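EI: anyone free to look at a 459-residue chain?
SC: sure, send it
EI:
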Amino acid sequence: MESTSSNNNVSQALVIIILSMTVVLILLVSYAKNILLFLGIIKQHGPQDDDKTEKDSSKSEIPDNKEATKSKDTNQLNKMATSKKDRTVSKSKFTHEHLVATLKSHTGIISDMHFSPNGKYLASCADDRSIYVWIIKDFLNNSSKSIRVNVDYDHATKLCFSPDNKAFLVTLFSEETIRVYKMAKKEDGTLGKIQSAFDFPEKCPHEVLTIGIASTGLYVMTCYKNPIIKIWDIKGTLLTSIDTLQMNHTHGRVSPCGRFVACSGFTSEVKVWEVTFSKTNEFKETTKAFQLGSHTSTIYSFDFNNDSTRMATISKDGTWKLWDTNIDYKRRQDPKLLRTWNCQSSFVGSSLLCLSANGLSVAIANHGSVYIYNVYDEDCDRIEDLCIGDIVAVEFSPSNAHLAVCTEKSIFVFHNVKGLKGFIKDLKLKIQSASTTSMKERIKEQINTAMTQLASLDK
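SC: here you go
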């Protein structure tokens, strides 16, 4: 009896479980159907769908609706593709009256660009594991010849040329070190093979902001985003580290004369150190030389002219300044502020600045546009909407004749017309103070040559 009762209880329990699961399943199906109806994935059929005639009529209309929908979608896709193509073409066809060349070979994002000291080459690196060395005389003649260097299993982030123009250095992202590449020449004197020579033995574990080589060839500088500057010999041995006492760095530079290294950061000063060597070219020390301190907020960028007698700075305070740094700092002479300009009202965020080798031109890059000044005029030439994001690098050629602007995808090279106008004004001032007839004649010839060149560029 007890066994039979137990079996009945089990059977009843199983029936209850099956019924409960059936109810739950029906509820889930109904709930899922309501969700699909709400999302429009399936259509709800009304009583008219039971009418065979209406169903047949509906069936006969479905192919036409599908064709119409397909045709509409195709037209929309074609329109979107055409719009995308038009946007691409409009960007690739950027034009400007002073544009010399547009260099496009990188498939990745370009991270740096520099001219060689002799003005013959322009190098760029990107995260597509490539470095391109462009031959300037070729692209000035409407030919974009270049030599590609592949970086195996890594990519370069920053680069700079050696003072003898026979090599260049790059910082590597993954390896966290500095690599030296040697540039060979062919028998006819043209640029030949470029090969990796060696890596610096010590790592650069922090993000490198800038890298530079002294024109004397005695040392290499790396400036990091954290407040450290490192000085290396040309074989990669660390000579010294400078704690700049900045919270972070915004820019760092080796002066073209090779005497100084400098940095800007969170504070409102540019700090400058002299790197000294013995007569036998042995490293001695770094000494605090001077600082530029007239700004009231963070300095975004700065630059030297060719002989380091002038510097230019741009700050978050909305101004940029030109300085006379031809001083004897050992006698505690301070740099002299020559002039202050107000930045454009359209400026957004940080800016890049470069000063021409002759100290007469300043280019400022801000949020996809470039503004070119000469030191005698208040107004500027504008090159607007080069790119959507920020400009990566901006640099004058060593001859002062051209300005290269590097975006994430392309490099644009322009005639430095504003600088040429400043050069003419500078010559006219010099002729007034010329002491000899021969000197005046020589300056007159320079003025005539520059005026002829300017007339040809302004056509």
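EI: Confidence is low (pLDDT under 50) at residues 36-92.
SC: 👍
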